[in-house]
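Example: YCII-related domain-containing protein.
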Amino acid sequence: MQYMITAYDGTDEKAPERRLTAREEHLKSVERRFKQGEHLYGSALLDEHDRLHDGGGLSI
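Written out as C-alpha cells, the predicted fold is:
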C-alpha cells in the first residue's frame, strides 16, 4: 500500500533555522528509504501560481 504525505513547515520566526538544522539528516533518510524501495517520489510544494512554496514538501 502506498501513502502520500504532505508536510508543511512551521511559520514562526525559528522555522527556517529548524528546517536547515534537520535538512542533512532528512536527505540521508530519504536516500536510504529510496534505495530500500520505501520512498518513490518527493517534491517541494507549489503555490497557486505554480511557484515553489517556501515551507513544505510531498512524499510518496
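The longest helix spans residues 15-35.
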